[in-house]
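Hey all, sorry for the wall of text incoming. These are the two entities for the joint prediction.
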Amino acid sequence: MTTFLQKVKLFLYGAFLFELETQLRKLKATYERTFMLLLYADMLGVPVITNYYSFRLLPYIINQLEPWRKEILKEFDILEAVSDIH
Amino acid sequence: MVSILATPAPYVLLGLVLYYIAYRLYSRWIDKRVWDPDPKRPTPATMYMDGVEYFPVNRYVLYGFQFKSVAALGPIVGPVLAVQYWGWLPSLLWIIIGVIFIGWAQDYSAMMLSVRNEGRSFGPITYNLVGRRARSILLSYLFIYFWLLTGAFVYILATAANGFAGTFYTIFGTLLGGVLLGQLVFKARWNIFYATILALIVVVIGYVIGYLVPFPPSNFLGTYGSIMFWAIIFAIILGIAAIVPLPTLILPFNYLAFFPAITSVALVILSALLSPLTGIGFTKSAYVGFTASFTGFPLWPLLFVTIACGAISGWHSLVSSGTTSKQVESEIDALPVGGGAMFTESIVALSSFAAISVVAVTALGANGYVIGAATLASGLFGKTLYNAFVLFFGAFLLFMGVTVEQLVIRYWRLVLADFVEERKGAIKILGNKYVATIIVLVLSLALIATFTFDYIWEYFGGTNQLFAGFALLLVATYLTKVKKPSWYTLIPGSFMLVTTISAIAYTAYLFIMHSFNTAKPLTALQQLFYTYLTSIGVTPYPIVATFDVIAFIVGVALVVLSTAMGYYLYKSIVAYRREAGVTQPIGGKTTMFKPGEDK
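and here's what came out:
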C-alpha cells in the first residue's frame, strides 16, 4: 500500500524529473540505434560489408537486435513528436 | 472590512469543491459507462515495452508529469485577459463549467483513445479513423498554430521583461543554472541532488541581482522600442535553446524553472483562499457587459477562446495521446492521470482569476497577473515584500513562457524539415535547422511588431480550441465505431467547433474591416505602433493595411481548414453510425462512404 508521503514523493518525481528521464531514454536510444546501424545495416537490407568488429560485438548486442529492427523500421510520423512539447 | 463574498476566496473554494464532486461523480460515471476500463487488459506500455517510449510508470509519477506538461502560460494569461474584458463572473463560470463538462473529458478521452489504439498519437489515429486529407489538414494547422503561439508568447515575455525591471536577470540566472546543471549531471556525472543545490544557488543569485539592480528600467527605449528590444532578446535566447541539444539547456532549464513555478501557484492559491483575512477584495466588476472593454469583443464566441487552458485546451489532447498514453500501467490509471491532471491544471486558472480580480489598474495585459499575485501574496506576508513578490511572479511569467516556447520553436523546425524532406530544389534549404529557426522567429517578431496582441491571442486561442473540437469529435468517431455512447464528447466537440470557427471568423472580419479604415488603430495598444511609425517618418496606412489583409487571409485559411476538418469528422461519424446500424439509410440502395478513405 502506498502511503500518502510516498504518493507525494512520486508526484514530485513525476513533476520535476520524469521529463528528464524520458528524454534521456530517447536520446540514449537514438545513439544506440545509430551505433547499431553502423554495424548491422545489412540486417535492414542496406548493403554494408560486415566487419570484424560487428562479429566481435554480436554476443553483447544480440538481445537488442530485434527491438532495434522493429524500432528503426517503424513508420515515423512527425505528429507523434508534438507531445514532447510541454 | 471587506465582505467575504467580495473576495476571491469563496469562489476559488467553490471551484475546488465542484472539481472534487465532478471528478468523483461525473467523470467516474463516464469512465465506467463509456470506456469501462479493465485493469486486466494489457496497455501499450506493457504490450510494446521498449524502455524508451513504452514502459509502465506509476500513476502518481504520471499524474505529476501530466500536470507539469499541461500547465503553462495558457491557464494564466487567458483568465487575466478575460477578466479585464468581460468581468470576473463570466470568466469564472466558463473556467468551472468548461473544465467539468469539457476539459477533463477531452484530456482523459484522448488518453483512452490512444491507449486503445496501441499508444498512437493524434496524427496516426486521425489518419486511420478519418483519412489522409484530415491528417494533412492537421499538419498545415500546426504550422499556423505555432506561428501564432510564438507571436503571442514572445510578446508576453517582452512586455513582462519591460514592465518589471530586473526580471530578466532571474531568467538569465536560471538559464546559466540550467547550463551548469546540464554539465554537472551529464558531463561530470554529479549526483542530481548536489547539482540541483548548486544550480539553485545560481538561480537565487539571479533573483538577488534582479531585485537590487532593476536595470534597464521600464520603457528605457520608449514603450514600443523597449518591448521590441526585449522581444528580440527573447527571440535570440529561444533560437539558441531550440538549436542546442536538449540536455545542454532545455531539459535542465525546465527542471529548474519548475521550482519557482510550483511555489508561485501554491502561493497565489493560498493567498487567495486567505484573502478574507487579509482584506483584499475584488476591484474588478463582476460583469462588464456582453461587449468587452478595451477591445469591443463580444462575449460569445470570444470568451471561449480567450480562456483556453484552464477550461479546455486542445493542446492537452496532443500530450495525452502522445506521451503519457504509452506509459499508463493500467487502464484504470487513465482517469486520475488524464482527468485528474486537467482538474489540477484548472486550479492554476483559478489562481490567475483570483490574482487579476483584485487589481485596480486596467488594460494591463498579461502583466496584470504579476501585479495581482504580488498584491495577494504581499497582503498575506507583509506589504514591504510587494516589490520582491513582483519580481518573483514576473519571473514566474517568464519561466512559463520560455519553458514552452523553446520546445515549440524546436518542433516547428522539425515539422518544416519533415515537410520539405522529399522535395527537390532550393526549397530544401528550409529544412536546415538554422534557417527554419530564423524563419519562425522573424515571422513571429513581425507579428509582435504590429502590436495587435489582443487579436493575435484570439487567433491563437481559436486554433488551440479548435484542436479541442477536433479531439472531441475524433473521440466521438471512435466511440461510434466501437458502438459506445459518444454524446459526452460529441456535444461539447460540436459546441467547441462552432464557437471557435465563429471566433476566428469574427476576428478575421475585424481585421479586414480595419484595413478599410486604418486611420484609427485597432486598440489603444496599437496606437503605440502608429506613434512609432509616425515618429520615424513612415505613414502607418500601407503597413497596417497590408498586415490587416495578411491577418485576414490567415483567419480565412483557419476557417476553411477547420470547416474541412469538421466536415471529414462528421462524415466519418455518420458513416460509422450507418455501418454500426444505428441509423439505416432511408430507401433504395445507398453508396456507402468507407471510413478511413477519402473520395
